[in-house]
Every structure is written in C-alpha cells, then in structure tokens.
Write a structure and sequence with these properties.
Strand content: under 5%
Number of helices: 9
Order of helices and strands: HEEEHHHHHHHH
Helix content: 40-55%
Distance between the termini: 25 Å
Shape: globular
Number of strands: 3
Structural class: mainly alpha
C-alpha cells in the first residue's frame, strides 16, 4: 500500500501522471491528507472493518489533473490502483461554497448570508493550478461567496469530506465487484455496461457510506453537531452533488448520448433503491428512517442544483429505471462469466 506522500509507486497505471501531496496548497492539502487516511483504513482495515483480501496490495494516489474524476484499475503487477484528481477538493470547495451561499439551499441549516452570491458558472476546468506563483483558491479569499454562520461553514467542510470519501468508496467497490478485472481483459465494453458498473459501484458504496456514517456520528458528533441529526441526509446531499458535477463534466465535453456515466437523477434513484447495497449499521435508526434521510439529501441536492441555475431537474420514467436494472443484471452476468473463464 502506498500513499501520495511517497514518490510514484511501481506499476502506477497512469504513467507519469502523479501528484505529490506536498505540492497541493492549503486548505486542499488537508482535505486530501484526511481522505488519504480514510483510503488507508479502507485498504488496511480497522477494528470494525475487515477489507476484502484483493485490496491488500492496492496502491492509491493523485493525478495532477484539475478535474473531478477518480478511477480504479488493475495494474501490470496484478494488484490494483486508485487515483483521484488533485483538483477534486477545489472543484468541490467551489461548488459547495456557491451552493451554501444561496439561502434556498439547505435553508434549515444555520443562517445563509443576506447578500446571495449569484455567480451561476461552475469552476470546472478553471484557471487555478498547483503551479508555484499561481494564486490558488484559499479559505477566506475575498473572491469567495460568504457562507453565513459557523454552522454552514462546518457543513461545507463536512460535505467536502463526505464527497471525497465517497469517491474512494466508489472505486473500492469497482475493485471487489470485479469490474477492474473485467475491463482489463475485455477488448470492447459497451457504454451501457460501463454505466451499469457505475450503478453497481454507487449502490455498494452508498451502503458502505451509511456504515461509516453510523460510526462517524458517534466519533465526530462534537466536531460536526449536525451528524447526530442529519448525517445520512448530508451524505445523500454530498453524493448527489458529486453525481451532478460528473454529469456537468460530460455535458461540457459534449458527449451527448454517448456518456460513460448515468444521469445524476438516475444514479440517485438506483443507489437508494437498489438491493445491491453493502453492509449497514444503523445504530439507533431503522432501515426505513436511514433511507428516508438519504433520499431527502438526494432530492435536496437535485433541487439545489436547479436553484443555482446549473440545470433543470428532470423526472425519470419507470422505463428508464427498469432499463437501468436490466443493464445491471446483464453487467453482473458478464462479470460472473468472465470470472468463471479466468
């Protein structure tokens, strides 16, 4: 196991695209350092988490890309690697800052500023880099929208943490669901199968996210008071916002119908309704209560995205949902068949 504090590890499948943590400016370095610690616990295990054996030799790190992607691959050495774009916390910071400066977004959490910061554009692919001498987005920068009170500021940091954690959980699920092995050995993979893989990883990662949230609410409740009452809800909000950001990246790239990732609203429905979810420890909450909270967070993120003027909320049809589940079943059959052959 290798962290991004070290030099590029052997077998890193993204060639020379490697970013050392020390080159990232604050406050983003701290966000990335904390999510690296989270990734280490996923790979090595904790007293309450026993990772799958195939994760034991995994490596993880950052690419020097100012985007929002994460990816898992099987390496040439037969192990697995997870990469996250170094720009991910900057994209998330900018997005959640703008959202929380809008009084219409999560209106019951703290007090939003009186003067709404209304710049509609996302910062995706913006001019900020990690190069020395270039001004990076920093906490307290006068160009940033005012958030409001301390509670909204603490929720901003929580949402960034949860989004980054979910990105790692999502990639870990690709590994132990066999997607990386399948992609490594398959010459062509239809876009529908790739989208189905995303749904499967979303559903599994959501289950694990709820498990980690139930533990975090007991450990971090004093640091983030909202965890005890709205932890699952804010997980849902952070996850669905990340879905929207990924969708925005593909929209900006002009992929049209040839997209590799499902639409944000469909991803939310499948992740929340799927029987594929991982283990969940609900502590004092019932299953129904937990999924009601995370569903609320999903819906609030969709409404917030529309309120920001970044896109209209589109309602799904039963046919779209049923087709997604059919594609998931097809993808699982393909992975099973491939595993039997190997």
């Amino acid at each position: 196991m290798m962290s991004t504090n070290a030099k590029q590890p052997p077998g890193w499948p993204w060639e020379n695209n490697w970013l050392e943590l020390a080159s990232v400016p604050e406050p983003f370095r701290t966000f990335l350092q904390q999510v690296q610690e989270f990734a280490e616990s996923l790979i090595l295990g904790t007293p309450v988490w026993d990772p799958p054996p195939k994760l034991a030799q995994s490596i993880y790190g950052m690419t020097a890309d100012f985007e929002l992607y994460s990816e898992a691959k099987r390496t040439s050495l037969g192990s697995y690697a997870i990469a996250m774009d170094g720009g991910a916390p900057i994209q998330l910071w900018d997005t959640f800052q703008r959202m929380l400066s809008n009084p219409e977004v999560l209106p019951d959490i703290g007090e939003a500023p009186q003067d709404y910061f209304g710049k509609p554009a996302l910062m995706l692919f913006g001019p900020i880099t990690f190069a020395e001498g270039v001004k990076a987005l920093k906490e307290g920068d006068e160009n940033q929208p005012p958030l409001g009170d301390a509670e909204r500021t603490s929720v901003l940091k929580l949402l960034i943490h949860r989004s980054l954690q979910f990105m790692y959980l999502h990639e870990v699920c690709h590994i132990f669901e066999g997607h990386c092995d399948y992609l490594k050995t398959s010459f062509t993979v239809p876009k529908r199968i790739r989208r189905a893989f995303e749904h499967i990883a979303d559903a599994k990662a959501t289950g694990f996210a709820l498990l980690f949230e139930s533990l975090a609410s007991r450990v971090q409740g004093t640091q983030f008071p909202r965890l005890k009452t709205d932890g699952y809800r804010l997980w849902g909000f952070s996850i669905a916002t990340w879905y929207h950001l990924v969708e925005a990246v593909e929209d900006q790239a002009g992929v049209g119908t040839e997209r590799s990732y499902p639409r944000a609203t469909l991803r939310s429905v499948i992740a929340n309704a799927s029987p594929l979810g991982g283990p969940v420890d609900y502590v004092t909450n019932t299953r129904q209560e937990v999924f009601a909270q995370i569903s609320r967070g999903f819906n609030e993120a969709h409404d917030a995205w529309a309120a920001m003027g970044w896109g209209k909320r589109t309602e799904l049809t039963d046919d779209e949902v049923n087709q997604a589940f059919a594609e998931i079943e097809e993808a699982e059959r393909l992975v099973r068949s491939s595993s039997d052959v190997q």
